[in-house]
Specification:
- About 60% of the residues lie in helices and about 5% in strands.
- It has helices spanning about 20-40, 45-60, 70-75, 85-95, 110-120, 155-165, 170-185, 190-205, 215-220, 225-235, 240-255, 270-295, 305-310, 315-325; strands at about 5, 10, 135, 145, 330-335, 340-345.
- Strands 1-2 form a two-stranded antiparallel sheet.
- A hairpin with a 6-residue loop joins strand 5 (about 330-335) and strand 6.
- The two termini are about 30 Å apart.
């Protein structure tokens, strides 16, 4: 892949499509409903179930055959009739995901620590960057990707982490680009897919900790063929745009599926009344938040593009923009042509290497 430079700094090649802009808006709006589910009476149980689904999804993509029931039993310390390696994979993944929230996904030191925990006893040199050449093969043994030479791995990883730490791209976009580039580099002898998915979840968790409880990996597993097709399409184009679109679709599907709780103890009448009120509030919130999310994803986005991405009319977009400006949440920098949007009041929580 050809490295691109932006003001002298490394910048991975990627394109943010209109589809991606719309998906960022949809995800931003759907997060609130997911939050309600996690804060409900079944929140603790839901988090536990989602963690099991995450472990199952990320290991199953790599060929692990344990079911959710078997994984639950393994983590409870029960004996399970399964290959020792598959049991070790599940235990390693669980131990790694227990570190979420306590590691810096932009720190090579922490990335190596997670890899060691996840892959201990499963691969030579767990917790260290590879010193050998590796390739990705399909089920027939055909090489479908030759990773960059081992001698370039430290530099490539450092460049990618440097870009990710400094980039002001929307976290949903940035984490997808990082995930794809990480898989392209293939910095470890094994466990690269698991680590790439883990690190995307960790990066999204820096932006919003709710993503620590979202089993995105399980939804990716359900569309495994599409996952590899998106990787291959991005490699063919030397642009991670197709991968961005695919992963954002999976994230949205995950958030929507897990964000429709029914609160215990409510009567039908109470549910209808509360739902009506929430819908009314969210209709207004959704339009504004989707517009802001689209602007953060692509600050030079135009009003007609915003209308297409959000499903609003041009007049509706302009009306919401006026409201956002009046509230001090949005500024226009420069002219209509050649200028850009600046979303105010956003705290950038970018962790730094220790």
């Amino acid at each position: 892949m050809t490295n691109k430079k932006d003001n002298g700094a490394y910048r991975p090649p990627y394109t943010v499509s209109d589809k991606a802009i719309a998906l960022v808006g949809d995800i931003s709006a759907a997060i609130e409903r997911f939050k309600i589910a996690l804060e409900g009476p079944d929140g603790v149980r839901l988090r536990r179930i989602n963690r099991i689904k995450t472990i199952r999804g990320t290991t199953a993509i790599e060929g692990n055959t344990l079911t959710e029931e078997q994984i639950t039993a393994v983590l409870a310390g029960k004996r399970v009739a399964a290959p020792a390696r598959e049991i070790a994979e599940v235990k390693g993944a669980h131990a790694a995901y227990e570190l979420l929230g306590g590691i810096d996904p932009y720190s090579l030191k922490d990335i190596l620590r997670v890899h060691k925990v996840m892959m201990q006893g499963l691969v030579e040199g767990a917790g260290a960057l590879r010193t050998k050449g590796v390739g990705v093969v399909d089920g027939l043994g055909n090489v479908i990707h030759m990773a960059p030479p081992a001698g370039r791995v430290p530099e490539l990883v450092a460049n990618l982490l440097g870009w990710a730490r400094a980039s002001e791209a929307h976290p949903l976009i940035k984490s997808c680009v990082f995930h794809y580039e990480f898989e392209f580099i293939h910095p470890f002898l094994d466990g690269n897919g698991r680590m790439g998915r883990f690190l995307q979840t960790a990066m999204l968790g820096v932006w919003n900790s709710l993503f620590h409880a979202a089993p995105i990996e399980n939804m990716v597993y359900a569309e495994q063929a599409g996952y590899y097709e998106a990787i291959n399409a991005s490699t063919d184009r030397a642009d991670s745009g197709p991968f961005i679109d695919f992963i954002l679709e999976r994230i949205l599907a995950t958030i929507r599926e897990k964000g429709t709780p029914v609160e215990a103890g409510e009567t039908d009448g109470e549910t209808v009344e509360k739902t009506s009120l929430k819908t009314s509030l969210k209709t207004s919130l959704k339009s504004e938040e989707r517009i802001l999310a689209a602007m953060k994803a692509r600050p030079d986005v135009t009003v007609p593009e915003l209308a297409e991405a959000t499903g609003l009319s041009v007049a509706g977009v302009k009306w919401n923009i006026r409201k956002l400006k009046a509230a001090g949440r949005l500024r226009r920098i420069g002219p209509d042509k050649g200028g850009h949007w600046e979303v105010a009041g956003e705290e950038r929580n970018q962790p730094h290497d220790p």
